[in-house]
Amino acid sequence: MVNVEVWSDVACPWCYLGKRRMEKAIEAFDGDVTVTWRSFQLDPTIPHGEHTPHAEALSKKFNAPVERIKEMNQRLIDLGADEGLEYNFDRYIQANTRDAHRVLHMAQERGLGGAMKDRLLKAQFTDGAIVDDPDVLAGLSEEVGLDGAEARAMLATDRYDADVQADIDEAAALGSNGVPFFVFDRAFAVSGAQSVEVFATALERAREKATAEA
Questions:
Q1: Where is 183: in which H helix or E strand?
Q2: What are the residues whose beta carbons fall under 8 Å from the beta carbon of 121, sequence distance 6 or more?
Q3: pLDDT (tens digit, 9 = 90+) per residue, 54-84?
Q4: N or C: which end of the chain has fewer CB atoms below 10 A?
Q5: What is this structure's pTM?
Q6: Domain residue extents for the chain
């Protein structure tokens, strides 16, 4: 059994790409793999309820023209298409992702972490959903098999907030200051949306190490 922990953010387009590539490697791997989704926030300072179009937000962050941001996004659109992902950056709305991570923790507790993570990423990058809206998050929860009313009630509390923060603190302790960040059996890590081949090699290395230590 290989255990993979993935630190990523719903707002991170490279995390969507990295998730898909890692999953392709897992599908081709002839062994058992468990995946745990860990929380990370690229920008925790975004006020809850503040919503900004993606190109406008990045233009301000990097002091670059909106057209330059759109050119940069095209690379991701092309890479995503190669992996079967659809990026609609014209619909992408930047929002605080803290509540989305809390919903993910709830889903993971019920064995639906992978499905919830994928739905949140698709909501952000394909559908243009507002991922700090409780009604949106409750609806997405229902789509993957959770109780939407329970999710909405949870979001009215601070439940799972400590879990989100613990993940963020642990990423820092492991030396990561960016995502996606993949840790294999707490033995070694892969940073970034690497190729399927890199993830396949990491899985093999993890299995070999576990076998040698058995």
A1: strand 181-184
A2: 10, 15, 16, 19
A3: 989 989 888 989 888 888 899 999 999 999 9
A4: C
A5: 0.95
A6: 2-213
